[in-house]
């Protein structure tokens, strides 16, 4: 005969197993939802910029400063678990999507990588990465390497990366900036203070420059009766020049791949 203690242990195990299965199902539902959401974004052709960085580097504060959105900000581990995406209008008039992601830590366990799959997949699908670092942290260089190691572990494709030295307002002016101990290929490096709103214009310009590395150049002839397409292109692409002809409007543009394929029928040879 089994004792009451053994019976209760089995009950507890079944309850824990049930909760684990429930959480796994919920994670799969989140993953499927994010996958559908990313598919719609690709169809819209709006470039996606993913914010990555060590925990408490200030990614959510930066997202709030750039988008003026109501973003949860807290000085704690994993304050951002579900990816938050907001639209930003660039100085050129082009629109982009900024996505905040979970903050990394040293030696992120494989179990956590599986649990955060929804947010990590946002990184893999992005067009540009913004690596936000806490400039004033004494271990900032080690934190940069930790994030880069994690990005390598999840097989992020070779897309442009911008190094964002955040909290620059807390760095003494008479002290030299930290120097990276490893050779990491960043498209640009920008100094900002998300909390104080410093350097944000320079950051937006750096994003524009990085996007030129992942965009296609094309010349499009849009008939006058399809003027709504011209408006849509101005919202989601970079229009370098515009010319009115007898047959329609000729636009010389830079387009993300999805839009490049969508407007293929309007492209002019050469």
Per CATH, the superfamily of the largest domain is: P-loop containing nucleotide triphosphate hydrolases
**General form:** globular
Structural class: alpha/beta
Q: How much helix is in the residues? A: 25-40%
CATH topology description of the largest domain: Rossmann fold
What letter string, H or E per element, gives the SSE order?
HEHEEHHEHEEHEHEEH
What's the overall average pLDDT, rounded? Answer: 78
CATH class of the largest domain: Alpha Beta
- End-to-end Cα distance, whole Å, is 86 Å
Low-pLDDT residue spans? 71-82
Q: Largest beta sheet, briefly?
A: 6 strands, mixed
Largest beta sheet: what is the strand line-up? 2-3-1-4-5-6
Let me know the number of strands.
Answer: 9
Please give the count of helices: 8
Strand content: 15-25%
Q: What does the radius of gyration come to?
A: 23 Å
CATH architecture of the largest domain: 3-Layer(aba) Sandwich
As for the number of domains, it is 3
Descriptive account of the structure:
The chain has 270 residues and is of the alpha/beta class. It folds into three domains: 1-42; 46-211, P-loop containing nucleotide triphosphate hydrolases (Rossmann fold), CATH 3.40.50.300; 216-266, no CATH class. Helix content is 39%, strand content 21%. The protein contains eight helices and nine strands. The protein has helices at 4-44, 59-67, 110-115, 117-124, 140-153, 200-211, 227-236, 257-262; strands at 48-53, 84-89, 95-100, 128-134, 161-166, 188-191, 216-222, 238-244, 249-255. The protein has a six-stranded mixed beta sheet, sandwiched between helices. The protein has a three-stranded antiparallel beta sheet with strand order 7-9-8. Strand 8 (238-244) and strand 9 form a beta hairpin. It is globular.
